[in-house]
Specification:
The protein is of the alpha+beta class and 459 residues long. The chain is built from 14 helices and 12 strands. The chain starts with a helix and ends with a strand.
Length: 459
């Protein structure tokens, strides 16, 4: 810029000097040759002065432009905080102020975009669904942490890499390829082998318009939903079965009585006893179902208060004494070693139901001549009691499911000893409703121990 301006100014001066020389030479040629030395000296002086003037003019005009150019380059390189300072004319200063104002607005816009980007990243990172954005060649543009956890890859390391290289599951590959190939959103549920195994719902939706080819992939973990659905189906099937069995016995007994057994005293008494027993079983099942429904719905109104645990356990053992004696079982009560009364903060009726279910369960699954031990003790903030038996025990693989509704380790044996299959589920829900915990430990063939901890009450 500087040299172009300099040569332009110098050329203009030379053109003016040359024009003057031509005019002078044309008007007084003889005089010109007589004074050529003086004319030559004047021309040299004029040329030097012209060169100096052109240099100063070019420098004065080019310096502000260079400063503006350097400032614009810094702004283009991302230094939006740089302020352009010029020492030229008012026009140059006005242009510099305009550039500075533009850079300020750009800085504000970039800050806003960065804030929105960070906010969007935080929102996506906090989602329970996995979110992956890919281009039309299935290369990762963005992936949140949840997607990495669900699919087992590092979201940051996979950016700009093909998604199907990071996630090798063929089922997931097919879902993504179908979503990219079609024009409508594609949803499919697949079994993820893990670890751990999951059920994933994958939703692939292409970006709208033609400006940004690609799609967004949303992964939702539906494992718990599917488990709940299976539990609901199992619950309905189990309830249907549990209701059908006693009704079948009652119906067959009534038909036998109708067909003439009512006239035979011995047969009549047998069938009536069956009807009574199965009616009681139906009544217990319905009562347990209603209790469980009230507990799970949160409509069970508990009234916690200080309850002496030792007295509650003594009453429970007394209620089950006859059944234990009929099986020649030994029931042992072991109070705290220090002799102090353990007071629990609980609803008296709920505590009674918990104790009855645990002791009843121990009596059912302990063979004749066995032993049941009920022990309790008080800690700083909790009271702990255990019901231990020397019964058949529970296999280790079945322990996590013993508190499920209608779950039975040995279905044939469980139905033979009676019960609704809801007792332990009711125990778990009641204990949790009273802010406590219940645990189970068992050795198959040797016995089982249920351990319950509840808040300690003042007493």
């Amino acid at each position: 810029m500087f040299w172009r301006l300099y040569l332009t100014y110098l050329s203009l001066v030379l053109a003016v000097v040359g024009l003057v020389g031509v005019v002078v030479y044309g008007r007084a040629g003889d005089v010109f040759w007589e004074l050529w030395r003086d004319v030559a000296a004047a021309v040299v002086v004029v040329l030097l002065a012209a060169a100096a003037a052109a240099f100063l003019l070019a420098r004065r005009f080019a310096r502000p432009l260079a400063e503006l150019n350097n400032g614009a380059k810094r702004l283009a390189d991302g230094d939006l905080g740089h302020k352009v300072r010029v020492s030229g004319t008012r026009e140059h200063a006005a242009l510099a102020e305009t550039i500075n104002a533009m850079s300020g607005r750009l800085a504000g816009m970039f800050d806003l975009l960065e804030h929105d980007k960070e906010q969007l990243r935080v929102i996506l990172s906090g989602m329970v669904e996995g979110v992956i954005a890919v281009d039309d060649r299935a290369r990762v543009l963005f992936a949140n942490e949840r997607a990495g956890k669900l699919l087992g890859f590092d979201p940051n390391a996979c950016v700009k890499r093909p998604l199907l290289e990071a996630v090798l599951d063929p089922g997931f590959r097919d879902v993504v390829e179908k979503g990219l190939a079609g024009t409508d959103a594609h949803r499919e549920e697949l079994e993820w082998k893990g670890p751990p195994p999951r059920v994933l719902a994958v939703y692939v939706s292409r970006f709208p318009g033609h400006g940004m080819p690609g799609a967004v992939v949303v992964i939702h973990d539906t494992t718990e939903v599917r488990q709940a659905e299976r539990m609901r189906q199992d619950f309905v099937a189990n309830v249907s079965h549990e209701l059908k069995t006693p009704l079948t016995v009652i119906k067959s007994s009534v038909e036998a009585l109708t067909d003439g057994a009512v006239e035979e005293p011995e047969a009549r008494d047998t069938f009536l006893a069956q009807v009574t027993r199965e009616a009681d079983r139906l009544h217990d099942l319905i009562q347990d179902l209603l209790s469980l429904a009230r507990i799970e719905s949160g409509k069970l109104a508990l009234d916690p208060k200080p309850v002496p645990l030792g007295r509650a356990i003594e009453d429970c053992v007394e209620r089950h004494h006859a059944r234990a004696e009929s099986k020649t079982l030994t029931v042992i009560e072991r109070p705290p070693a220090d002799g102090r009364e353990a007071v629990v903060w609980a609803d008296p009726d709920a505590l009674r139901q918990v104790l009855d279910n645990l002791v009843d369960n121990a009596i059912k699954y302990t063979p004749n001549g066995g032993r049941i031990t009920v022990r309790w003790n008080a800690a700083d903030e909790t009271v702990i009691f255990e019901v231990e038996d020397t019964g058949v025990g529970i296999p280790q693989e079945d322990l996590p499911r013993v508190f499920e509704r209608f779950y039975r380790v040995d279905k044939a044996r469980s139905r033979a000893v009676g019960g609704t299959g809801l007792g332990l589920s009711i125990v778990k829900h009641l204990v949790q409703a009273m802010k406590g915990q219940v645990r189970v430990a068992s050795t198959f063939g040797k016995g089982t121990t249920f351990r319950v901890s509840l808040p300690r009450g003042a007493g």
